[in-house]
UniProtKB/TrEMBL annotation:
Organism, as annotated: Streptomyces levis
Official protein name in the record: Helix-turn-helix transcriptional regulator
PANTHER family xref list: BLL4672 PROTEIN-RELATED (PTHR35010), BLL4873 PROTEIN (PTHR35010:SF3)
UniProt cross-references to SMART domains, sorted A to Z: HTH_XRE
Residue span, HTH cro/C1-type domain: 21-93
Amino acid sequence: MANAASARRVAPPHLLELGRFLMARRAEVSPNQVGLPDAGKRRTPGLRREEVALLAGVGVSWYTWIEQGRAENVSGEVLDSIARVLRLSENQRLYLRQLAGVQAVPLLPDAPPEAEAMRPFVENWWPNPAYIADHAWNVVVANAAAETLLGMTDDHPGDARLGGPGAGALGRRRPYNILREFFTNDGVRSAYPLWEKIAPTVVARFRSQAALHIEDAAIPALVEELRVASPLFAQLWDRHEVLEDSCGPEVLTHPAVGDLHFTRATLDFTRRIALRMTVFLPAPGTGTEAALRRMSHVTLAQRMNLLGRDDLVGEAR
């Protein structure tokens, strides 16, 4: 009986690792780094448990339990306070939360990565359409095939144009937003021959992803904008449905080549930068691969004509 009781008291491996991790980080922080007086050389390097507990605003006994792997219901707020005292990086803070079994959502970056730094990721998929979007489905960068199919090009009517250097067209008054354009732009709507059928899945996919960053004001602002602009969106949003966004069939159409059948694959970058790349892979046996090659020649010719016009305007000036 005694042995059984002793076995039940053994801390779970993930909590033991949490304690070891904290002890290792505590040893790396000197008193003067956190505003405490340096009373000379210590027997062990770093902060004492009592000092961490004081600075984090938690009881000494409770902090001791955490390091011993005995705190099975420690809160995320307490862990974040400890992380601040121990000067943990964002990755270390998330690791701490993961070990404790509490939600570990990274803070949104202060500024997104430069679009041109991300361009090789989408260009390497050409002639397959590919784009990278943020957590609110604002497109950061796209290749020419995606721009052409989804109406991101400069010659697209309305306010949904992107512009910028290189093959892409990023850089306009506001980012091209996948959800906004899907529900409010007739030109983009025409690219989806099954628009009404897939509209519920688009909203459910967005809700599933947006839940990770619901604290960001951009998410509710976009939702409220679309509730006003699109009664269908408002109806679908109120269903509170969610759907996995990693993979699925997609049919797009283009006047030069007709319907294109894809498997849509969504690939996450590190959650720290909250970016995802969506690639449209041709469905076998549908003729889509050959159609994309034909479309690429049309797109290239249009871009050459556009460059020619820009050169003429430059010479005239």
